[in-house]
């Protein structure tokens, strides 16, 4: 049975996981840095890199011990090589290189976005290519057509902020703390989504791209007006964001009519209201809908290990060279 170690360190989660070819997460550990970054209201790259450097090696040792596995038992070591905060990415990738070299195991440098893009296949064995993918995280907001491993066509992206970033900024404006997405979702449950008139940027545009900067500014103005309760702003923001996403998907899906499944991945896919709205979109297009469980939506190492397993299974697989560089930017 194929067994791959995955390492993730591109943002503020330090994570290691062992995943096998039967889609079993054999062991995993994850350490969030929320407490370190919370005083700053956002991720501080230097603090993130230091925290990864302190935690990653014992974490990998722990995951191997949890599963009673030796490095030599691995079929590959897969690590995020970008995109992300470069200091953290370097910590993970260099650790993977050292382990690969010491144990003579193949190295697989994984694009973090590919990890998110393939994560639904780890959770759902029935998910076949091609599929329509909404990838919504803190750094990215894209609609992609996924034709196979390594075969991604981007149909839409954001012209300014990512969707997760809009959730985080809304949380900051409302004083809900960090990380913002789950806080906005929680508070929105108590609010009235119709209470605050907010714009739906790009809705109606013939191209499926996103824009969230104007929505964020409108949230700020609504808050500063003193007229609205924070829970109503949160609920109205979340509904406006969902309306943008469903409208943009409608345009993009018209260009992917042969895709039978609508898939969502990335941190914002953990949001229950977003998932429910996407389920409706899929139903309206006679598509199946699938989303990984919330823990596989936010950053994790199991999805990186899984991307490694998918790459290993390609007929033309070749390991990545030990001199491969970490990349702060790396489009799919
Ligand atoms: O995929 P991810 O963990 O990291 C990146 O690759 O960016 O995504 C993190 C983003 C953050 O912006 C976070 O606020 C958002 O996902 N997020 C959520 C929820 N959980 C995480 N947004 C809305 N609702 C949630 N429940
Ligand atoms: Zn991510």
Automatic annotation (TrEMBL):
Its cofactor is Fe(2+). It is an enzyme of class 2 (transferase). It is found in: Cytoplasm. It catalyses: L-threonylcarbamoyladenylate + adenosine(37) in tRNA = N(6)-L-threonylcarbamoyladenosine(37) in tRNA + AMP + H(+). InterPro entries: ATPase_NBD, Gcp-like_dom, KAE1/TsaD, T6A_TsaB, TsaD. Coiled coil: none annotated. Its EC number is 2.3.1.234. Residues 25-306 form the Gcp-like domain. Binds 1 Fe(2+) ion per subunit. Required for the formation of a threonylcarbamoyl group on adenosine at position 37 (t(6)A37) in tRNAs that read codons beginning with adenine. Is involved in the transfer of the threonylcarbamoyl moiety of threonylcarbamoyl-AMP (TC-AMP) to the N6 group of A37, together with TsaE and TsaB. TsaD likely plays a direct catalytic role in this reaction. This is tRNA N6-adenosine threonylcarbamoyltransferase. It comes from Qipengyuania aurantiaca. The lineage of its organism: Bacteria, Pseudomonadati, Pseudomonadota, Alphaproteobacteria, Sphingomonadales.
